[in-house]
Amino acid sequence: MANWIPLWLHKLSSPPVFYRFAGTLRPWAIGLALVLGLVALYGGLVLAPPDYQQGDDYRIIFIHVPSAWMSLFIYGVMGVAAFIALVWRIKLAEVVAMASAPIGAAFTFITLVTGSLWGVRMWGTWWSWDARLTSELVLLFLYLGVIALYHSFEDRRQGARTAAFLALIGIVNVPIVHFSVNWWNTLHQGSTIKLLDPSTIAPAMVWPLLTMMIATKLYYVASLCGRVRADLLALEGGKDWVRQIAEDEVRG
Amino acid sequence: MNPTRQRRLTIIIAILVAVTVAAALVVYALQQNMNYLFTPSQVQAGEATSYKTFRLGGMVKAGSIQRSNDSLKVTFTVVDASGAMPVEYTGILPDLFRENQSVIATGHMDHARFVATEVLAKHDETYMPKELKDAMAKAHAGKRIDEAANQDKQQL
User: Fold this and answer.
1) What are the transmembrane regions (chain A) (predicted)?
2) Is A247 contained in some domain?
3) Which among A216, A221, A219, A224 is positioned nearest to A64, based on CA atoms?
4) What is the mean pLDDT of chain A?
5) Interface confidence: ipTM more than 0.95
């Protein structure tokens, strides 16, 4: 078996190596995210035809749905990182989990707000306590709980490990959000993009949606890289590699 | 893996399993007890009698919408596969409200009639341009005619 993969991962989990790696990755990710995001917006708002029953109002889907996907995806990443942090006590995993929480909370918030705007135009109400809407709101509270718990400890690593525990337990909500529209009668409609069955959306509408999905993923990567770099510097303050960077900055 | 990590891994997996089982049981229980809406046939079977106000969900029957001339009052029939329920509502309906559209009405029963205080329109998860929808409707109608023709042939 090729054992360079675990070796490479092991090396990458060292703060100075990851600091440099994230520094190289970040500009590429943010650049691509911007380009793809603009292409997707142009495709969605200009090129895509109006919907047969919702007219132009459906176009909020190009923000709402990618944000909703990200709210679940980031929670998944945070959960996995929290698991690694709790079992192996790897510093980088703690930092990744805690840096993911605010980004995920932002996407969840965008999902709820855009959903509300869409709802008032199509359903006729801003909010309804149906299973999908309620479980997505619980997801936002979980994110906020993780952030609050992390900051309520004097010792950052102690805080990260405690908050990681909440993040890990909260992961049961992720399948509930996803399957809520199948398990209960809801006001919210079912999934349009399906992995196994054909999707129920015209090709001219689906490509901007998928492009936006990639753009939001890349934005998350870029944002995560930036946050992790800052957190690593703060956490490793007295170490040689940080001092080296600080000295280089002063000299440069 | 060293013993400490082994122990942490076991504890965390045990907690995860416990939480998953608990969540699965809650979801299972809520599926039977949590009703966002009742369909007309469920209401007629008496399943909603314990609620003063509840949500009624179904399709607006074609040709059943009657608007009052001098007020915002509108009456229509909500149907599901095997039941029908007359609904009365006074107010502004959402744009998507029309015949054969899924709606969710909140209100209470007044004798055999459902008096709604809020009517919401549901939309499905299908998105397509109008031209495609028209083409599909045409193809569908054509197919129906073909089928009818075939049936006629068989009868002959």
Assistant:
1) 28-48, 68-88, 95-119, 131-150, 162-181, 201-220
2) no
3) A216
4) 93
5) no
